[in-house]
Design a protein that fits this description.
Layout lengths: L6 H8 L3 E2 L7 E2 L2 E2 L7 H13 L5 E2 L36 E3 L15 H6 L5 E3 L4 H7 L4
Antiparallel strand pairs: 1-2, 3-4, 5-6
Length: 142
């Protein structure tokens, strides 16, 4: 709510569609075409949309001859706005998701329902298996 532009969109649009790696498979990077407000319900819907992989939800827009209607998703890179006092020229990789402890409401005033998430069997902490620091140091993702 404190910015008149979306830094997440700037990062998404700057990422290449394909990263070619010598002697390895190319990394395809389809990009989710919708921005979401900071509402927990929107984030859950976007996550479900992405894992469902319906082609029209991703950039680039498919060409008429492109008959592939599904995108295979192996990894989601979550891009979030930097807010609440962070420096505007700073980006961070989120490597841990927490089920509990959200003290701030979303833009809609709703809070995370931790009890519901516990009933669903979600783990307290979900950490990435990607060694982000090593990838950054070795420039695996130019």
């Amino acid at each position: 709510m404190e910015y008149n532009f979306n830094t997440s969109q700037l990062v998404r649009d700057a990422l290449p569609e394909v990263t070619q790696r010598p002697n390895k498979n190319d990394i395809q990077m389809p990009k989710y075409d919708r921005d979401t407000r900071d509402r927990y319900e929107n984030v859950r819907r976007a996550s479900q949309d992405i894992w469902d992989g319906q082609r029209p939800l991703f950039l680039p827009t498919p060409h008429p001859q492109d008959n592939k209607d599904h995108v295979d998703v192996d990894l989601i890179l979550h891009l979030g706005m930097v807010a609440l006092g962070w420096k505007m020229d700073q980006f961070r990789f989120e490597t841990v998701a927490r089920r509990d402890g959200y003290e701030l409401a979303g833009d809609d005033g709703q809070y995370v329902d931790s009890a519901h998430r516990q009933k669903l069997g979600l783990p307290e902490i979900l950490a990435t298996l990607v060694d982000v620091e090593a990838a950054w140091r070795n420039k695996m993702f130019p």
